[in-house]
Amino acid sequence: MTETDYDVVIVGGGHNGLTAAAYLALAGKSVLLLERDDHVGGAAVSADAFSGQGARLSRYSYLVSLLPERIRDELGLDIELARRRYSSYTPDPSDPTRGLLVDHGDPEATRASFERVAPADFEPWNSFYDRTGTLARVLFPTVCEPLLTRSEARRLVADDDAWNAFVEHPLGEVITSTFASDLARGVAATDGLIGTFASLDGHDLDANRCFLYHVIGQGTGDWDVPIGGMGAVSGALEQSAHAAGARLETGATVTSITPDGEVTYGQAEKQHTVTAEYVLSNVAPWVLAGLLGDAPDQAPKPEGAQVKVNLLLSRLPRLRDESVSPVAAFGGTFHINETYSQLEGAFAAAVNGGLSGLLPCEIYCHSLTDPSILSPELREAGAHTLTVFGLHTPDRWVHAENNDSLRNTLQAAVLTSLNSVLAEPIEDLLMTDAEGRPCIETKTTRDLELALNLPGGNIFHGPLSWPFLEDDAPRATPAERWGVATAHPRILVCGAGARRGGGVSGIGGHNAAMAVLEG
Fold it and tell me: How far apart (Å, rounded) are the C-alpha atoms in residues 339 and 361?
């Protein structure tokens, strides 16, 4: 059946699709959003991952940095973001009885920690992040504006040394020339590898682009915890879109899109066809190509390279490093086995098809910053959540037949890596759910693809792009100027696959809406 025409149909109800829906409906456009799942939010959701325990985890996406205050204000979003006092703690793999603590609340404690572990690197550490701050302060305000050209962006930065270090040359060069210790080098390098399978020395600069987006958020590079979990972010966007008059349909699986704006979807065992002046795609560009009927070999399938593990513990683990409290160590980003050499070794091993030594991992304890995600009973008992993000586990390893066994292998590798720096086995602290099962949940790249329609489990929908256009790139249309264009004028990208669209930011949705309104 063919339904009423809409000004805009949005395919995919993740946070970017909701952002676009809210902006366009507020502008008076008729908007239909179609989401295949039974709820909106995509990867930005909270879930009771462990039955009977009352812990609502940010199941997939977990921190917020790139969401501009401008979007929150313009859409009237009731979102509270909590700043973490501690930036990071990193045990020394060669001697886990000591580690590097970066404490935003106590610079002298940070200095003392560097003096114990990496004495030559304290001043370089501060100067390094002063340089990234130069980029952040000038580039982040541009992400909700039409794209600058490379030359315009470089003039805006006005610091040739910073530009050359982070944009023109492999990230590894500035890191190894700045820091003396393998440990400090690794802590700085990890921002270039979250969700990105790359060598730090790669001339493809994939690590550089990932790094840039991780250090410019809010103009400071800070990563915040959403109070109430990531579902609170999507919930506020859903409320805004509803209030503005957008029609949000769940359980609606889009099966095809035509370049002239016809969208076919199935819902409740019925087929529907709608037409729109514009179709905004909040699915990955590779998925969009399939819906448009393009040849599957026109672009390579994206590849993710991470394993995500959620745990519920009876209490925080004790550390081998007795000079640092577990609250401080887990209060920011807890890096394990992420020295520079370990990161590069893990990448090289993964390229050759296997794990190398201890898996590099990052751990976040949201319940320290936001106890509201736990039931009163869990809070009273001293329980805590941990989220672990393991690096360099590429999707090329996994397929339908081995996903279960590989999940078990990767989960064991994560626990082994954790245990290498703890004073007690992490397994002894795992709580059990209502069925008596350990409270641990592991997601491979294939699990992410199946659950979230992320091809290859790539959390950015594909390779990241610079937040500017090359000088000779086309800028004739609003979609090109806003970084949301496809080969078809009526089909725009509004999700993480848009230029400047990665992370929980709403930027892709905002910019696609602006392109529609400008057009």
Answer: 11
Mean pLDDT of all residues in 198-220: 97
Q: Between 171-178 and 182-189, two packed helices, what is the crossing angle to 10 degrees?
A: 140
Cβ neighbours of residue 285 closer than 8 Å, sequence gap 6 or more: 299, 461, 462, 486, 493, 497
Structure tokens at 8: 């805009």
310 close to 49: Cβ distance less than 8 angstroms: yes
By residue count, the chain amounts to 519
What tokens were used for 510?
């905002």
pLDDT tens-digit series, residues 475-519 = 999 999 999 999 999 999 999 999 999 999 999 999 999 999 998
Q: What is the CATH number of domain 6-46+61-79+226-298+459-518?
A: 3.50.50.60
Q: What contacts 89, CB < 8 A, 6 or more positions away?
A: 99, 100, 101, 102, 324, 328, 329, 330, 331, 332, 333, 334, 335
Give the C-alpha separation, 486 to 490, whole Å: 8
Q: What is the pTM of this model?
A: 0.97
How far is the C-alpha of 319 from the C-alpha of 13, rounded, in Å?
41
